[in-house]
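From the shared-data thread, chain only:
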Amino acid sequence: MCHLVLIGLPLAGLSVFWFLPLPIALPLYLLIGAATAAFYWYLYKGNGRPVLTGAEEMKRAVGKVLATDGRLADVWVRSEIWSAQYEGELRAGDFVQVVGMEGLRLKVRKLVRAPVSSARVD
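Structure, as tokens:
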């Protein structure tokens, strides 16, 4: 849909030269061009923002270990209990960072130090 706006709006705006006199059509077309350029800029800036949802966002999440069983652990991440795979040694109460996902199972690694207070661990 945005492709129609980004390509079609300036092309459709050329029709103002057909229906209106030049002193009115030119500023109107420049306004259409400026609006299109602003929309391009908004889309360009949006591409640089970090992912806020989904599996990609979970890779940055920090959680707390609730219990361990062999190579699996129950971890509290983003206000939910997840099953997680880990390497090394974990105990209940340790903080972990999510490094990946395999299906609905997280892959985590132990954080060396507790997260700073600005990091939210629910």
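The helical segments are 2-13, 16-19, 22-47, 55-58.
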